[in-house]
Here is the input.
Amino acid sequence: MIRIRLCRLAIAAEVALNRRAPLGPLEMKVLEFVWTQECELTVRDVQAAFPDLAYTTLMTTLDRLFQKRFLTRRLRGRAFAYAGRRSPGDALGELISGQVTDLLTDPKASSAILSTLVRAVASKDVALLDELDELVQAEAARLRGESK
Here is the structure.
């Protein structure tokens, strides 16, 4: 269940990052399925998970997901093999990073954003504050050109 929730968040991230129209219900289901697999999939592979759908329907859906840049594809024999362009976690990370960056561009809001982040981390687990501090120090050192 958590993996599907992560997939849905990542799909929302992809849509937001690329300013695309939201995906239809079938596109969302097919993309979630592709993301849960460890290998590239042909239309026949995907059809095994959606036996009630016509081959051509799935072929069109996968092609649309490729055209919308959610999937990659390469020729495998006489058929295309599809895979997620990036993992759900990576897409979600990009969304969060982009939104935080946007929020930090407002000088009046940046202190509030950072203090809110620190409070949220602290309320979750005090040990995470130490981890956050280490990440901040490492990034500051990297930006200064130092190495730890």
Q: What stands out?
A: The chain has two domains: 2-85, 89-144. The CA atoms of residues 42 and 77 lie 10 Å apart.
